[in-house]
Amino acid sequence: MSTVTLRWVGSTLMTGMDSKGQSLVMGRWEERDPPWMGLKPSDLLLLAAASCSTWDVVTILEKQRQPLQGLEVTCRGEQAPDPPHCFTSLHLHFAIRGSVAAEKVERAISLSLEKYCSVVNTLDSSVEVTTDFEIIE
Fold first, then answer.
1. What mean pLDDT is predicted for residues 114-126?
2. pTM of the entire structure?
């Protein structure tokens, strides 16, 4: 079980602390001079999906002894136009550096999304999750 803590600072600015004591700032306080800005809360869901799947893919490729040199994931989310602006789809693009085998990358991504990534697997089935990847040697 994990427990996180969120503290409202002012306006719509908040600080959050994860179960390990790491913190981040979310929202904004535009009335301050200069304005205080943090991460957009809905972007945190995209970051969570990207980081969770990255953790899995890196771990799987390392176990397969693939020469992974770098990985960057871009996660794009489409939201409904009306409140509560639920996400309707997510797309994860994996840009992988190294001489890794494409079939191993494809398998690692598949295992992450279908079996290991708790964030993606927690999303409602109405959220379509798609992926693609490129290998940059």
1. 92
2. 0.90
